[in-house]
Amino acid sequence: MKLSLLKSLVRGLRRAVPVLFLAALAAPRPAQAFPPAPYHLITGLVRDELGQPISTPGAYILFHATNGVKLMAPIVPGLAPGVNFQVQVTMDSMLFKDLYSPAALQPNMPFRISVWMNSITYLPIEMSGNYARLGPAAGITTIDLTLGVDANGDGLPDAWQQLLRDMLGANTLVGPNDSALNDGISNRAKYLAGVYAWDPKDGFRLAIVPRPGAQPVVEFNGVGGHSYTLLSSTNLTDWTVLSFKIPANGPDDSPRSTFFTPGTQKLQFEPQHSPDDSTVHHFYKLQVQ
Question: Does the residue 20 lie in any domain?
Answer without folding.
Answer: no
